[in-house]
Amino acid sequence: MSIKAAKSLGLPPGFTFRPDDTELISLYLLPKLHGEPSRLPFPGVAVVDDDAAANTLPWNLLKRHGLAADDEAYFFVHTTKKDAAAARQDRYCDGDATWVSQRPVYGRTCVDGEQEIEWRRNNLNLHKGRGKNGSGSTGWVMHEYTVTQPACPFLKICHVAFTGHGKDRKRVPDDESDCQVAGDEPVAKRARVEADANGNIHGSTGEGYYGMDQYDSGEKK
Q: Bias regions of kind Basic and acidic residues — which residues (predicted)?
């Protein structure tokens, strides 16, 4: 979260909205599937609708939603039957880049102490060029969440984030114009997010986090 956004919410800089897998499924994806409002942890933070999220260069995607100074965001994406069938395949996006699919993660979560929901998280890395033979990973990752049982393949949540790992990786490649917003921190000074070997995304040391353990029925404890 940028300094400007944190101040507007009455929060100190460094606090980050980053729900875990179970929270994304139970508090955001399932309510959206049921046509119910999501439980937002605090005002001003939302998961944005953008059906082109998986086909847009991530720095352009964030800029389109006024998030050019951020390194991550969450999006609801509606998919077609064809898209759902190809969910675990590589997919091309504009700017001659490819989201390369990695090993998926499967999980279960219990809703309201009763119904058990099964879900899948597809992990993808953005490579410049076409497929695995391109110029290598850019440091951008995407997690796609879908409910698999009961099967609901036509709506997913995409979490797009820049990990910054790897030699000479930049948030925006040299052949693209960087997206820095006046009044926000310079790109080089913003906290990066990290991804472990299983594709799980973590925040850098010193950040605060908001998740289910901090909130009950949407109110801060």
A: 186-195
- How many Å is the maximal CA-CA distance in the chain? 51
Q: Which residue has the tokens 């076409």?
A: 130
Residue 90 · residue 100 · CB < 8 Å = yes
User: How far is 38 from 49, CA to CA, in rounded Å?
Assistant: 13
CATH of the domain at 141: 2.170.150.80
Q: Are 59 and 69 in contact (CB under 8 A)?
A: no
pLDDT at 220 over 50: no
Q: pLDDT, tens digit, for every residue of 173-214?
A: 655 554 333 333 333 333 334 444 444 544 433 333 333 333
Per DSSP, helices labelled H in 65-202 are 81-85
Residues in the chain: 221
> Is the separation of the CB atoms in 156 and 128 below 8 Å?
no
Interatomic CA distance for residues 126 and 137, integer angstroms: 6
Question: CB under 8 Å to 63, separation ≥6 — which residues?
Answer: 179
The residue segments making up the domain with residue 73 are 3-182
Q: How many structural domains compose the chain? A: 1
pTM for the model stands at: 0.69
